Amino acid sequence: MRQTLNYRIFVIEQAGTSTFNRALLFNIGFKESLKLDSFNCFIFHDVDLLLQNDNNIYDCKNSPSHLSVAVDKFGYKYDFIFPPPQFSNLPDNTRTKIKSFVFVF
């Protein structure tokens, strides 16, 4: 990263043959990461999508935001879903208020 940030990367994978549940993986990643440190910002990111522009800042403000409004593999069209299939940020205080991601999309 060229943004000189202090960060950790956690890769959460689903094992087994059950239906893929992205929201469950986000919840597990959030919960397990807090066992290691008291993080104050969380970026939920699909591993197959990387930032193309360094002006997109990995940062948590006071409220959640969608960090990817246009993605090359989707033809750079904006199609908002929460949590988005690309990546989003959640300050810790917001994440603990909503308790978890919804498990069914």
UniProtKB/TrEMBL annotation:
Protein name per its UniProtKB record: Beta-1,4-galactosyltransferase 1 (Trinotate prediction)
Keyword Glycosyltransferase: yes
CC per GO annotation: Golgi apparatus
A single BP term in Gene Ontology: carbohydrate metabolic process
Keyword Transferase attributed: yes
InterPro entries membership: Galactosyl_T (IPR003859), Galactosyl_T_N (IPR027995), Nucleotide-diphossugar_trans (IPR029044)
Stretches assigned to the Galactosyltransferase N-terminal domain: 2-61
GO MF term list: galactosyltransferase activity
Keywords from the UniProt entry: Glycosyltransferase, Transferase
The organism of origin for this protein: Henneguya salminicola
